[in-house]
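Mods, move this if it's the wrong board.
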Amino acid sequence: MRTDCRLSIADCRMIPKMLRAGPGASHRPALHRPWLSTLLAAGLVLLCAVGRASVARAQVKYGLTPAMVVQSFKPGQPFIVNLTVSNGSARPALMRGIAMDFWYNEKNEKVFAAPGTLPHSAANWVEFVPPVVTVPPQGFSPIKMIVTPPSDASGSYYCVAFLESKPELARATTGETQAVYTNVRLGALVMLAAEGSEKYQVNVTDARFSPPAPSHDLTLDFEVDNESNTHIFPATAVAVLNPKNEIVAKTEGEIKRFLPGQKNRLSLSWSGTLPPGDYTALLTMIYGDDRIYNQSFPFAITGN
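Not the wrong board. Structure tokens:
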């Protein structure tokens, strides 16, 4: 439920900037979605083994950048995504590109499947050029991912671009054990949105607020239902205001990814004490194209 607060919309937009500023500091601008550059900085390495090989035996340094692609597109117009594969081992690595569908299950666990089998599939749109690349030892190789969206695409679509190495013998057959082969799979999450077709709608329910007390921290927990036709990365913050609308405490929440139709809980906490008095905890959640959701939680701190 959206509730009114005594701050204006402009004030609410300033909350995240104010939270990043220290006491007495100016309201310096915050970087736009700073979490994104962090996510794009590192590759995801998946070591896959057939048999009973120890993962430690297969540990070598490989990387794929970017680890996540978040991009808008024009329906019917192909575009290119540039990937880079690195190889920190002492031998060349033969890697092939494959795309798989990406979605979530009822437990919000990641699900991978063959192209075209999961909702909002983009895996069938992807072609790797070249389809196979040899990454030199202690080096890297570029690979292009050509994406061809259909002309009637609307909303958002997803897949994971995998670069997978050729299976190699890790342990030969013996009288007691079978042969074991290992390979390396590197993944980049691809999140695509058709330009101008995004429709944002978020429902916040089941908010559970607990004010600070000597025995526990201030906590706020709530469910977010992404009813949009596209993905969102809600940025949440709580500011504790005194009767003069001055911020006396502040905290920011962890950023989570929500695909269309996905539900999950977000939580924030603050460790500290407040003098006796009346306060309001103001939740601010920014999502989508800078849309803002606010909810206020009045509370009082009594003396001993």
